[in-house]
Design a protein that fits this description.
168 residues; mainly alpha; Protein Binding, DinI Protein, Chain A; two-stranded parallel sheet; 6 helices; 76% helix; rod-shaped
């Protein structure tokens, strides 16, 4: 598909010198939009707030596991056999529970991040389309191996997203 678009673009640009002179190309660095645009920053802060409590619980659990492991390593030789086995079992169970909760945490976090970024991407795409129509761009790319700074309109998009209220 990308090859077809590229061939069509080459054919369009190369068809006549006059047409090529009127052809206007733009590029938007989506990664920068996700990192720097106000809606993306707000979405990231929202996610951090949503997951802060769970993150703290995970850190406490990790600390508990670390302390139990240190205690086992330090006292295993002097502990009675049954107490050592009980502590090892407790450590193993706690570690399995931690691994499960950590996996669930990552999955939930990734799902929420994807949901929030989908909204940011939708707004960014509407903004890019509005800029393209207003400034008469023929094509705007969001993915490229290289794009000249002369055609990079990422800053315009980021500024427009900051000026534009949510939901518009």
């Amino acid at each position: 598909m990308k090859k077809i678009v590229f061939v069509a673009l080459i054919a369009l640009v190369g068809s006549t010198a006059a047409a090529a002179a009127d052809f206007k190309i733009g590029f938007v660095n989506t990664e920068r939009v996700f990192r720097d645009a106000a809606p993306a920053v707000r979405a990231q802060k929202k996610i951090e707030q949503e997951f802060a409590k769970r993150d703290q619980e995970m850190q406490k659990m990790a600390e508990q596991i670390r302390k139990l492991q240190e205690s086992l390593e330090k006292n295993a030789v002097t502990m009675p056999e049954t107490e050592r086995r009980n502590k090892e079992r407790e450590f193993s169970d706690l570690n399995k529970d931690f691994q499960r909760k950590q996996r669930e945490f990552r999955e939930d976090l990734n799902q929420r991040r994807n949901e929030e970024l989908a909204g940011v991407l939708e707004r960014a795409n509407r903004t890019i389309k509005a800029i393209a129509e207003a400034e008469k761009y023929d094509i705007i790319f969001q993915e490229a191996v290289y794009a000249s700074p002369l055609i990079d309109i990422t800053d315009k998009v980021i500024k427009a997203l900051e000026d534009k209220p949510a939901g518009k």
